[in-house]
Amino acid sequence: MTQTKPKIIPTTLDEKYSSTLSYLEKLYLDDERPWVVAFSGGKDSTLVLQLVYETVNSLQAKGCAALKPVYVLSSDTRVESPNVAKYVRDTLNAIDANAQAGGLPFHVQLVEPTAAESFWGKMIGRGYPPPTRHFRWCTSYMKIKPSRRAIESIAHVHGSVILLLGTRLDESSDRKKRMLAISENESQLNPHHEIPNALVAKPVANWTTDEVWEYLYTFNPPPWGKSHDEMLALYRQANSNECPVVLDLSTPSCGGSRFGCWTCTVVKEDKSMQGFLLHETRLEPLYQFRNWLKEMRENESYRSPVRRNNQVGLGPFKPDARKMLLKKLLETERKTGFELISDAELAYIQQQWISDFDYSNQSVSELVKPFGREVPALESLMPVAVSIEKDIIEKLAIENDLPSELLESLLQLGREAEGDMGRWGAKAELERKVGEFITKATTQINQAIPQVMESNS
User: Fold this and answer.
1) What would the CATH number be for the domain defined by 13-118+134-238?
2) What are the Phosphoadenosine phosphosulphate reductase domain coordinates in residue numbering (predicted)?
3) Whole-model pTM?
4) Which end of the chain, N or C, is more open, meaning fewer C-beta atoms within 10 Å of its C-beta?
């Protein structure tokens, strides 16, 4: 029986550095599969990216004619702490500029969730409660899906990819157990268990935390020119680890002492944000909003007593609660000067509210106007009745105890159907639409709640 030769693991940083570069060079030249480097801006992913950059730089200097593409993939949830998000974007821009100037095959890609997958789309639009340890919906929608789409798109073009991650045995005992349980081939690659046509390489698996820091301090600035000093300052401020590029639910979530989303309610306290506040007071309203959000989550009166599947139980946020959330967010946006919600998210929220309860089709537009924001193409969704005097509509609304917006919408429906009632099925279609409007109105009235959680000034 043939015995497997044990691996010789380098013991000093110089040995580990040389060994890792040799491994990367051989792996790069082994085949034509492009590489995808998962970059979060934290220490481990920065180490991997810098080693890869040095490898490709070296091969170019040696006259290697066919340099295959390397995709630098980073994820922006749009609720990252603004100082961390800015650092990541600035670093990606520096990498892109340096690679283009030097003719290196690096392609930078920043992925984001769609409006429907976003934090505000889910919570304000559909009424999801803020995430908990037992209902951590944010990771799947905001990180896993966007990253997977990008990798699968690259694999579709090239047939297969090699994904390079900064996971290390030294990170935690649980991570070490998971990593050692995965079988690898001779090139130290293993298939990704969720992404087809993707192999995973972990080139810094045996590096210790001290070695990572020593390398980053020693080889500073990196080949792309932007100093590591800003990243090191962020770590000193937060006294924490980075939030990794998440590709599956086994990856630790953002939270605790990690750089994570400023909206994170999974943890009891956001210690990294507390550290940032000592250096950047403009982040204070974000911290207050996050704490308010956590308190709101615990108040069951803001939740529908019926779930979306019509079963009895705590369901989504009620309409007035969602409106309160949006207003509070826009107030926070004004205080900080950061754009906290995109136009696309506002449009998606309005679309979702129309589906759930907003028979007037104008709620989001009316809420955002005082804050100098507009909802794209919203005005064309449902024109109001212009041929009927508003005082007549308001009088009828008061007499019948109905919202005036409902009467305007019903009148508009009748106007649109006029002249078309001879068509087969037109009457039934109109009755269905009228019924939908009335149902939305009834839902909104029944679920109305007092505005007891006022904005913090």
Assistant:
1) 3.40.50.620
2) 36-222
3) 0.75
4) N
